[in-house]
Amino acid sequence: MSRTRPLLLAVLCAAACLLGGVAGRAEPGPLPPFTLRGVALEGKSLSFAPRGQLERPAVIRVDGLVANPLGRYYLYYSAHNHAGIGLAYADSLDGPWREHPDNPLIRDVAIPDVLWIEESGRLHLWAHGDNSRTDLWTSSDGVRFRRQGTSIRADAVNTRNATYTRAYDHPLQRFGSRYVMLYSGWSERRGLRAIWLATSTDGSTWTQLPTPLVESAEGETRNIYDPALLRVGGRAFVVYQDQSAHRGGAIRYVEVDPELHPIGGGGRRFVLLEPDPGQPLQGRFRGTTFHQDGDRIVLLSGAASRPGIIVYATADLTTVAPPPRAGDPP
Fold this sequence. Notes:
Blueprint: H1 6-18, E1 35-42, E2 54-61, E3 73-79, E4 84-90, E5 98-99, E6 106-107, E7 110-117, E8 122-128, E9 133-139, E10 146-153, E11 163-172, E12 177-187, E13 192-200, E14 207-208, E15 225-232, E16 235-241, E17 251-256, E18 269-273, E19 285-293, E20 296-303, E21 309-316
Antiparallel strand pairs: 1-21, 2-3, 3-4, 4-5, 4-6, 7-8, 8-9, 9-10, 11-12, 12-13, 13-14, 15-16, 16-17, 17-18, 19-20, 20-21
């Protein structure tokens, strides 16, 4: 069982107080500031944490979806270098998170993503072993998974990889689709990593768009990746990490319209969280996901490196500004 460590939590709280109570020097934007709350998982408290490298949380509320759930929330995580997918569970997004005794649930893959698909009545979990593709597993209980095949491929869009997916139930009228998948792909020809889009009507068969959804803007690194879609207050945002640190860095975002077009041409960029360079964050976030919990937004993210940890932060949902009116400046 993993519980928030008093020492680590004290360090986190001290850093937040030095920054005015907010985790990171966030540029003012439409999203509210997030306050770092603590460490959700750390490798030394887990039996499955090869080399202590926890990466990329994927969290889903499972009560009402699976029979006899172990907890209200399931958190899937991985270790880098494709060691496998582990599971922790809790009744609250604040934890404590308990490790499943049969970890790893899936071997030789990394970077999980999970979504409930109504058409199949199952949890769909995506992960990759070979970086050139992302594969799909399904499960009726969230513990026993069966591989179904490949969902997206790098060669479909002429990139070196097709990984770090996040899938959502988000219909797009322009494609007649119900589900979207955001993912990362490195273009050898252009020398940059961008965020790409795939669409699906059933959550199993995917169509990849031939051009990136979001590219880096002026002043950003040429590597932006590990995207997430945050929908709140009638607005939508594509959130991603830059590469201001080792395979990760600050959390940034761009607002998009309901059809996922960046608002204002290429879209104005904002910094959501800029990690403190000291312990325990080590200047690095990687693999962010969001969940609405009452009047707050809960952010969970990988952080630090060697070892990696999973941290969480919260923001006040009621402070999100309403969508701009037609004719308002972006």
